[in-house]
Every structure is written in C-alpha cells, then in structure tokens.
Design goal:
- The chain has three helices and three strands.
- It is α+β, with helices and mostly antiparallel strands.
- The protein has a single domain, classed as 2-Layer Sandwich (GMP Synthetase, Chain A, domain 3), CATH 3.30.300.20.
- Strands 1-2-3 form a three-stranded mixed sheet.
C-alpha cells in the first residue's frame, strides 16, 4: 500500500504553492500566452523527487510549453530552492507531467452533447 505520509503531503502542498507562484510571476507571456496551472504535486518518500502536474490552456500549446518547462527545470528548481531553503534540507528534483484531465472532461462534455 503506497500511502503518503503527512510530511510528504505538506512538502508537496508547499512545492505546489511555491511553483504556482513562481510560474504566475513569470506571466503568460513567458509561456507563449498559455495559462499554466500547477494542478498537483506528488513527492517520493525520501523527498528527493517531485512529480509536478501542470494543466495548460489552451491545450494546443501543451507540447511547446511542456518542452519549455523541461528546459527550464533547473532554473525553476533554483528559484524554488530559494523559497523553501528554510523548510527543506534538499530541494527535490522536478519532473513535469501534463495533467490532461481538463481535456478529458471537455471530451466527455462533447460526447454528452451529441
């Protein structure tokens, strides 16, 4: 059974909040006018790796934005490190995943309208 500890949940919430703020401060222009939302963060038990789920609107820009996030990972991690250095000894590695649940909801919506 893979149950997250309270510490994992707290760290994940903090990372989600801080990354969302970092991305918000960069603005939509930094991501070619796409709107990014950090929809969730899952962190490994050793707190060394954070899986960051982002939803991107419009979804047509998702591939480009995900590529850009991949290129900026170390910069984003550095910025995150400055924010969480008081709370965390090590700043987790960041891996970005596309959260396409909104697209799924939209698709179901379209199917139901038929």
């Amino acid at each position: 059974m893979d149950k997250e500890t309270t510490r994992q949940q707290k760290v994940a919430r903090q990372i989600q909040k801080d990354l969302a703020e970092i991305i918000r401060l960069r603005g939509m222009a930094a991501y070619d006018g796409a709107m990014l939302t950090v929809s969730g963060v899952k962190i490994t038990p050793d707190l060394a790796l954070a899986k960051v789920y982002v939803s991107i609107f419009p979804s047509s820009k998702a591939v480009d934005v995900m590529e850009q996030l991949g290129e900026e990972t170390s910069r984003l991690r550095g910025e995150l490190g400055r924010r969480v250095s008081k709370q965390l000894r090590i700043v987790p590695e960041l891996v970005f995943y596309l959260d396409d649940s909104l697209d799924y909801v939209e698709h179901i919506d379209e199917l139901l309208k038929k």
